[in-house]
Design goal:
Elements: H1 3-18, H2 21-27, H3 32-46, E1 51-53, E2 58-60, H4 62-89, E3 94-100, H5 108-119, E4 123-129, H6 132-141, E5 146-149, E6 159-174, E7 184-185, E8 194-198, H7 204-216, E9 222-227, H8 230-238, E10 244-247, E11 258-263, E12 269-277, H9 283-296
Parallel strand pairs: 3-4, 3-5, 7-11, 8-9
Antiparallel strand pairs: 1-2, 5-12, 6-10, 6-11, 6-12
Helix pairs in contact: 1-2, 1-3, 1-4, 5-9
């Protein structure tokens, strides 16, 4: 609908509300003759009379009453469409697709989603879990706007990245293990234990960090079992099949037969990275990345070249 046609609708509505050309013209900040001409043009284009006129009254016709109802609806729809498109341009409405590795879902992802949803309640948020390779592929292919991984994209990647969080490792020991009763344990004291680690194809960064932590204190872990998920790792530990190293936030997965113990001699940490396409100019994504600053500090993107 053109601007002129929209104006004619507004003029018609004003006259229908006032039933007086002089008062309607005043409300529209226009002279009465142009208003009379506009109403005649509208009636001619519709082929019906919208008003009955005399020197003493203006009365809306039955056809005019029907047209008034529809005119209100059209003007309201146009105003709503204008508001929505402005909000969409500003990143206030729209949708956001996030893909993340499961280990980010214990604490960090719920925290940032809660914060963002509070700031932007009209954004539809879609969440999807996957292994590192799946998350990176989803972001690169445009199936996800932002991804969260534990391992940085390879050199030459077309993804920006930002370190959201850095967590210490902790040990998971069977509840009846001789070292499970204290407040902390030296990783070096676990050198003779069987270790349970995550499958490398599922979380290569997580697995590498655990092995690097052991090597940093003088030994290479004896890997007895590999598991696809952290919850399975904890379950295996609980049954006495070995010990494991996990990131601190995973201690929310408490198990009655396992103990989460602070490592007193380990400086290796697990990073959580946000990744997104360099050429993504979606304002919803921009607003989400800015909201990460409230949880993780100012977002300073960089890339591997």
């Amino acid at each position: 609908m053109s601007i002129i046609e929209t104006r004619k609708l507004q003029q018609f509505i004003m006259l229908a509300e006032e039933l007086n050309f002089h008062r309607a013209a005043e409300r529209l900040h226009m002279a009465q003759p142009p208003l009379s001409a506009a109403i005649r043009q509208l009636e001619d284009s519709l082929g019906v009379r919208l008003f009955e006129r005399s020197k003493s009254f203006v009365r809306i016709t039955p056809a005019g009453a029907v047209f008034l109802r529809e005119a209100y609806r059209v003007i309201s729809a146009l105003e709503n469409a204008t508001r929505l498109v402005q909000h969409a341009s500003a990143g206030i409405v729209g949708n956001l697709r996030i893909s993340f590795v499961p280990s980010a879902g214990y604490a960090y992802i719920p925290t940032v989603i809660k914060s963002f949803a509070h700031l932007y309640p009209q954004i539809e948020i879609h969440l999807d879990e996957g292994v590192t390779a799946e998350v990176l592929l989803a972001v690169e292919a445009g199936d996800a706007h932002v991804g969260f991984v534990r391992q940085a994209p390879g050199r030459g990647s077309e993804l920006h990245q930002f370190m959201c969080q850095e967590e210490p490792l902790c040990a998971v020991l069977p509840a009846d293990h001789p070292l499970s009763g204290g407040d902390g344990v030296a990783l070096a004291d676990l050198r003779d234990e069987d270790f349970i680690v995550i499958l490398g194809m599922r979380a290569p960064g997580f697995r590498s960090a655990a092995i690097a932590a052991c090597q940093a204190v003088g030994f290479t872990p004896r890997i007895r079992h590999e598991a696809a998920t952290i919850s399975t790792m904890i379950g295996l530990v609980a049954e006495g099949l070995g010990v494991a190293l996990i990131h601190q936030s995973a201690n929310r997965l408490q198990h009655p037969k396992a103990r989460f113990i602070k490592l007193i001699d380990c400086s290796v940490t697990i990073e959580l990275l946000a990744v997104w396409k360099k050429n993504n100019d979606d304002n919803v994504v921009r607003n989400f990345l800015q909201s990460l600053g409230a949880v993780s500090g100012p977002v300073r993107p960089h890339s591997n070249r």
